[in-house]
Model the fold of this input.
Amino acid sequence: MAEFFEMGGYGAFIWPAYGAVALVLAGLWVTSRRFVVSTEADLATLTPHRDDIKDEA
Amino acid sequence: MFFHRLANPTRFLKLAAVIQPWAAGATLVLMVAGLYFGLIASPADYQQSDTVRMMYVHVPAAWMAMFCYTAMAVSAAIGLIWKHPLADLAARSTAPIGAGFTFLALLTGSLWGKPMWGTWWVWDARLTSVLILFFLYLGYMALQDAFDDPARGTKASSILALVGLVNVPIIKFSVDWWNTLHQPASVVKMGGPAIHPSMLVPLILMALAFKAYYIWVLLIRIRAEVNAGKIRALRLRQAQGPSQHMNEETANG
Done:
């Protein structure tokens, strides 16, 4: 197992690279999800007002 | 015809809702398989030993960096020429994903360069042109939000995306046109790939995983952008509502 993490002596280069890939991809997914969730919440609060406008029209 | 039908956001959102879980599932399955073959089931290289495993994230990230830019520029062109509303949103949603992949290509390349070339960075054609690609993404994103009128931001950034497209073939052929530390192509080249199947399999799996990830996150972002557009329109109507009344009152008075 230790041999696997050593990566032939190059673990110090390989694991940070794979870690960065995991971080960036996970980070982009999380921020994108938050973007959807927050816009959906905003839309939900705005929708009653839209009905008002429709009623007026 | 197909694209015209997709121009309707409601239809597009329905289709996206169907595709999204498949893209998410494909990303996870391909990623696990790619990591297994890349880190465990494939041999170390006879010259590079285990650093060859850097290839399974570096090369797919670099491919995605160029693919996303091309997709972004084509979408921007469709938005610019045919005023296709979803094309603009697709371009805008692709930019941060492409910038992420470009950053990863640069970072993993640097981490690969240190043990193999003896340096983190050289100002040669391949590395410099990819750094320019990264700045093009950042410039595109900055320009999008640099105007009070979102339509002007979209137009200006679309033009930048199209002008910057010239950089993509420069990146691809930089290793053939100039002397560089970077090795030339070994997969997408005349005469087929010059790479053993044991290493080609994890490379292709990771490349497909990154592509599925792009589709997955792109659909999430486009959905959010469609919502954001609706919110802007609703707020504008709300803001205009009372002032119109006031105008009518002053006109009557």
